[in-house]
Specification:
Layout: E1 2-7, H1 9-12, H2 19-35, E2 40-45, H3 48-62, H4 68-90, E3 111-114, H5 123-133, E4 138-143, E5 148-149, E6 161-162, E7 164-165, H6 167-174, H7 188-196, E8 200-205, H8 209-216, E9 224-226
Parallel strand pairs: 1-2, 1-4, 2-3, 4-8, 7-9
Antiparallel strand pairs: 5-6, 8-9
Helix pairs in contact: 3-4, 5-7, 6-7
Length: about 230
């Protein structure tokens, strides 16, 4: 049984590394691995605060010479730094190098850690590709939001949380265009492909580890399920 987690960089390193969160997350993953010999994890890590900080510095200094591709590469490098940290913390549970091309290589151990691949989309898309390759039926997308809302709750007091939503309706909310550093519950490019391959995605708060435990064990949880309904 392979569980794919798209781990938002915003909870790994919102500004600097969130050590207590990572300690708790890795402890949960280790416990599940010890209790369930058939369980394997693929963890795809985002760039978070460092990616956005470096991208903003690039945009500010470059002015009118900004390249979206270069901004993406800066963000990709941040994902790879975060992924190396996760791989190191997992120790012997993760025996392979960090995956930077989700279309290549095997999955030999209990945990595979992956990072950004190339410009044009976020690490969410890499998670979808890995789920397809290794026949996982869903991606658990962990970020700093508890659920998908009908609008931005920070600016729209009428926005309501959504428990389940189709890909068509979700894509109407997030659009079809990827912008490096864009804040969306799930990458529009990843969403388009996940819809094509009939993959489900669960969006949930990454820091609520008790809730993650429930998701992993098929118990009622707080979050939004996107996909074929």
């Amino acid at each position: 049984m392979i569980t794919v987690i798209s781990l938002g960089g915003s909870i790994v390193a919102p500004d600097t590394v969130d050590e207590p969160f990572l300690q708790g997350l890795v402890s949960l993953i280790r416990t599940v691995l010890e209790e369930e010999p058939q369980r394997r994890f693929i963890v795809v890590v985002g760039g978070g605060g460092p990616a956005r900080t470096w991208q903003q510095a690039y945009r500010t200094i470059s002015g009118n010479e900004v390249s979206s591709e270069q901004a993406d590469w800066i963000g990709i490098m941040a994902t790879r730094l975060n992924a190396e940290l996760i791989r190191g913390i997992l120790g012997p549970w993760c025996t392979q190098a960090v995956v930077t091309d989700p279309t290549q290589g095997a999955f030999e151990g209990r945990v595979l850690v992956a990072a950004g691949w190339k410009p044009g989309f976020s690490s969410d898309y890499d998670a979808v590709l890995l789920a397809e390759r290794f026949k996982a039926d869903r991606v658990i997308n962990l970020s700093n939001i508890e659920q998908v809302y009908t609008g931005d709750p920070r600016t729209n007091t009428e926005a309501k949380p959504i428990d389940t939503i189709s890909w068509a309706d979700f894509r109407a909310l997030v659009g079809d265009v990827w912008v490096p550093g864009k804040h969306v519950p799930f990458d529009p490019i990843a969403s388009r492909y996940a819809a094509q391959i009939h993959l489900s995605v669960i969006c949930a708060s990454g820091r609520n580890l008790e809730n993650l435990h429930k998701i992993l064990h098929g118990e009622p949880f707080i979050g939004t399920t996107i996909g074929p309904l």
